[in-house]
Amino acid sequence: MVRLTITLSDAVFAQLEEKARRYQLTPETLLQKSLEDWLALPDESFERAMARVLEKNAELYRRLAQR
Known about the structure:
The protein is mostly helical.
């Protein structure tokens, strides 16, 4: 098993704690289960999201490539 450390703002951690409390989970368990669910999503949804971001930022990428 791998241990991962992340940094959260106080505000984000407070939201995480509140949501975890509502589901009667520890913040760690809520994050682990949420990440597992997210990773299990079909690749198609990621592809759509990635295409949307690339399209939205196309002009920025074009200008950066010209430098």
